[in-house]
Write a structure and sequence with these properties.
Order of helices and strands: HHH
Radius of gyration: 28 Å
Helix content: over 70%
Strand content: under 5%
Number of domains: 1
Number of strands: 0
Length: about 190
């Protein structure tokens, strides 16, 4: 039979190893998200340079100011759409990275919860008579902490979903407004 100190030492070591694994997992996922954002930015910069060159050539070819302004307005619409698409892609990468990090954190919390309950159950077998009340208090405190965490996680998830919905709605409205503005300016 192991002592409480040995059990505590083993639990501490296991917790440290789990935290190190979580940190490594978080770092890997965060770097993957950053790498995706860098790729997106490089692609956007390359496309922007190519399009700027083509746009400049078209504008230089305009025969009069009217044609120049008509071309300018017509070329603005695709740029607006590309900026909106870029924003959506950026948000998608950020959202998926956040979801992966959340999933890892939730798995770690569930495993830690399981281990703490297991540790308390094991340790409670070695408590002196009359200490059952203290063990019940610790179990109750763990249950309350877990319930609080679960409520916090649920509220955070709802807030993130609401934010994503609001951002998507704002982008849609901006896109519609840009389309209408460009359409009006090309008619003039």
């Amino acid at each position: 039979m192991s002592t409480v100190a040995e059990q505590f030492s083993a639990a501490t070591k296991a917790n440290f190893e789990a935290n190190l694994a979580l940190f490594t997992d978080f770092t890997t996922k965060a770097f993957a998200g950053v790498e995706k954002l860098i790729d997106l930015n490089l692609s956007a910069a390359k496309a922007s340079l190519e399009e700027s060159n083509a746009t400049t050539q078209k504008l230089f070819a305009a025969k009069d100011p009217q044609e120049f302004f008509t071309l300018s307005a017509a070329l603005a619409q695709p740029n607006t759409e590309k900026a909106i698409a870029y924003g959506r892609h950026f948000a998608s990468i950020a959202s998926s990275t956040q979801a992966e990090l959340t999933k890892s954190a939730e798995a770690q919390v569930a495993e830690t919860k399981r281990k703490v309950i297991e540790f308390v159950d094991q340790a409670s077998k070695n408590v002196p008579p009359g200490a059952e009340g203290a063990v019940a208090f610790v179990k109750s405190a763990i249950g309350s902490a877990n319930a609080g965490y679960e409520q916090f996680a649920k509220s955070t998830k709802q807030a993130v979903e609401t934010l994503e919905t609001n951002v998507n709605n704002a982008v849609d409205q901006l896109s519609q407004a840009a389309t209408k503005t460009t359409a009006r300016s090309t008619k003039k």
